[in-house]
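Continued from yesterday's entry.
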Amino acid sequence: MKKTLLGIGISLVLAGSAAYAQDEMDHKAEALSHAGMSKTHADMDHAPVALQHAQVAMQHAKAEQPASESAKMHMDQAISHLQMAIDHAEMGHASVSGGHTDQAIAHMNMIEQ
């Protein structure tokens, strides 16, 4: 019984730590990283891989909590361009997807730390 309770307690602590780590993640940096990988693959005409990275970039961009109205505006624009990149990658339009990914990256780079 004690071992079971100890195991449950440890599981709860680890789950809480994982949730805390998730909240502390630098979502903008992750979004930029995956957007960059998406662009690289779009340039190589690898639409399916570009799509995967654009989708992950979108998840991180949506999770980012911009600190100012300007930052929010740029992140909203980045999210809009990532959605267009995803839409075009799904259609196999790698070069168009890459162009929208470039725009998303530009908007995220305009956000001050």
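--- second protein ---
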Amino acid sequence: MWSEIKGENRIGSEGGEIINDYEHSLGARVTLEKNGDVAPFSITVGVYGSFFHTVYMGSLCEGVAIFKSMKSDIGEYLNNPQKAESSWVENFVNRY
């Protein structure tokens, strides 16, 4: 289950302002930032104990769409423990 992490004026790992931040109860986090050090928008994801990955985009619309898609993919993965971790991570990183 995803839960929103709330707070004001928080700075993310890419140096931008966090505008969307969720954590999954089975051990993952997805964070959308704006105005970071590298790009106008970035998403950092982590599946705890497995991997971290960051993607960059130029528009909020693109960022929100990718954020939603990543959340869905990670939630599906965490709820299906039979999936092979290494191949899932490789496919995820290649997709995003």
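The two ends are 22 Å apart (CA to CA). Strands lie at 2-4, 17-24, 28-34, 41-47, 51-57. Will compare against the first tomorrow.
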